[in-house]
Amino acid sequence: MNEHKSYVIDQRIERTIANLTKNNMLACYVKTKEDVIPKVLEYLKDGDTVSCGGSTTLFETGIIEYLRNGKYNYLDRYDPSIPAEKMDELFTKALAADTYFSSSNAITEQGELFNIDGRGNRVAALLYGPKSVIVIAGYNKIVADAKAAFARVKETAAPANARRLGYKIPCATTGKCMDCNSPEKFCCLFTLIGYQLPIRKDRIKVIIVGEELGY
Ligand code: SF4
Asked: Ligand 1 pocket by C-beta < 6 Å: which residues?
């Protein structure tokens, strides 16, 4: 990457990490996606019950595959042997996990995590339940503020995810939000996670990666 552009991105990352830290989240930076698993291992121990939210970033960083190594009690939402009607059971168990993995649809420079959800299991776990939450996000998820986060989700994350999941909703075709009322609409719940109470300090760990990841 061009050094001047790289400098601007580095400054943005630094501001974001400083404000996440002020908000009592344990934020750090790793340079590449290959650095993510060694970092994550600092927060995990063998035998932990772990689970995750739906995420392209978790696939791209190898986390989903890594959690299947047998060292953990992994509640695997991507296990094809689990029938759809049992998924809510798994999602409910995940709320009591030792560690929950997710990305974030956007991260503001003010140190906030912005997410949308359809069913609500992912945002619920981010908010409360799992003892520890590890959020992994490429630098491309950083935006100026909550307004920009909302725009990012509507203009980029939702349409790209709609295509990934094969949903027949308008943004999957147009590539931008059409304010639909489709039955398959998945941008139903919006959460902005900011300051964490001191008793919850460092429950949420945020690993920002110096590469573009996810949508
Ligand atoms: S409201 Fe509909 S069109 Fe807009 S992002 Fe959500 S699912 Fe896509």
From this structure: 154, 158, 162, 169-171, 177-180, 182, 185-187
